[in-house]
Amino acid sequence: MNETVLLIPSYQPNEETLAFLKVLTNAITVPIVVVDDGSGEHSRSLFEEMETYGITVLSYAENKGKGYALKQGMRYIVAHYPEASWLVTADSDGQHTLPDIQQMIATYLPISGELLLGVRQFYFQQTPLRSWLGNRLTTLIYYVSTGLWLSDTQTGLRKFACHDVPELLEISGDRFEYEMNQLLVLPTKGYHFSTLPITTVYEEKNQGSHFQLIRDSYLVYRPLLTFLVASLSSSLIDVTLFFLLSLVLGESSGALLFATTLARVLSGLYNYQMNRTMVFHSQTSIRHSFWKYGVLFIAQLLLSWLGVSWFARLLPSVLISKIIVDSCLFVASFIIQRRMVFAN
């Protein structure tokens, strides 16, 4: 029998959480596993009440984070529900409605290799400012980093095959960054994403969420920002060298070609090493990735030279032309490197 198990990590639940879970257990027939992420003694009675609803509760003493709780739940489900084919994760802070959870459970998913995401729509007038800004920024950075557009990268309502749990357990992260790491790592392993529109809900302007803005924003954005820092720092080296060389050599077409070439070679070597070791943690050999990087490097070099030469006729500053052209090129290059050059 193909069965789905619902997994809900929970930290310091309240009476509203309890009421929702009671309704949920009466409305769905799939097993529910709740992970008590070190909520403490004052929450014990609430978790004991959940058990009377037929919910399996896993507990440990110290708060470890959402990613840790999800991994603990996955391990338990794989071990105790061998007949289960799929696993759905949902949040306990009221952001996922009963119809959305039911639809997620009912939606077909292949037995392996795909992640189904319940995505919300964030309208400025209807969304708390912190949540709107956080989601828009993350979506943009994620797109630049991967070339994939997801309107909701922070959704906790997800469905995947139990067969894929070992792969998911290998992904790093014990707090809120774990779910973002899933979105970064799985495409590099050939996984596909599909989306299911869900209701956007914020309980009391999202006060039920335990996402701590400074600490957890850093953890969520860290893998994405690593990508951008490597690209921006190499771009800074490139632009600085080009500007200094253009001051010395002048702005003729030949001088621009030489300045572009030398600046790009030096910044390219720096960028290759940064991307291979610090950004993509590539396991492919240097010989395998370097020739691909070389082809991309030459293409960028020519496009940069042609673009800067053309824009220099229209704009008063060569530096402005350089920044415009290379800003577009490094975004395209970033996507190509992730998908083709340094793909493990």
UniProtKB/TrEMBL annotation:
User: Mind telling me which InterPro entries this protein's record contains?
Assistant: Glyco_trans_2-like, GtrA_DPMS_TM, Nucleotide-diphossugar_trans
Please give the coiled-coil regions recorded for this protein: none
Q: Which GO terms describe its biological process?
A: polysaccharide biosynthetic process; protein N-linked glycosylation
Q: Which cellular compartments is it found in? A: Membrane
Give the protein's recorded name.
Answer: Glycosyltransferase
Keywords, A to Z, come to:
Membrane, Transmembrane, Transmembrane helix
Q: Which GO terms describe its cellular component?
A: membrane
